[in-house]
Amino acid sequence: MDIDTAAAIPPLDTSDPALIPDPWPTFTALRERDPFHWSKYGYWVVSRHEHVRDVLMNRKDFGTGDFAANLRLFYGPDFDVLANPAYRWLSEVFIMQDPPQHTRIRNLVVGSLTAKRVRAMEPRIREIARELTDGFQARGHADLITEFAYKFPVMVICDLMGIDYEAPEMADLIAAIPEAFTVFEARILSPAELALANRRILELEAFFEAQFADRLANPRDDLLTALARTGQEPDGLSVHEAITVTIGLFGAGFETTANIIGNGLHALHAHPEQWARLVADPAGMASGACEEALRHQSSLIATYRTALADTTIGDHPVRAGQRVLTLIGAANRDPRKFADPDAFDIARGDAGHLTFGGGIHFCVGAELARIEARVAFEHLARTLPHMRVDSANAH
Question: Against a cut of 0.85, is the pTM above it?
Answer without folding.
Answer: yes
